[in-house]
Amino acid sequence: MERIYNKLVRDNIPNIIKDKGEEPITRILSDKEYKQELEKKLNEEYQEVLEANGSERVEELADMLEVIKALGELEHTTLEEIINIANTKSIKRGAFKDKIFLEKVIDNK
Asked: pTM of the predicted model, to two decimals?
């Protein structure tokens, strides 16, 4: 029986499949394909975060971070640098802790 996936997977997945006695058919992506597949994977993980709850949601957030880390490497940066930028933005513009929902802005000029 064949199962078609056609998607980017974590590095150890082919070995996990082999350990189950199955044969993975894989190929190495070009840099352009890799970036496109990472972007698809980010969207996939985002959808999984939305559908998950509790500890399962935390697992999905971790998967999302792994994709963000890989996308960052394509931009020649690290997850730590991305987090530092996020922290700087949080200091400058605030975070989302206060749950503020902006309904509209009235120009009084």
From this structure: 0.86
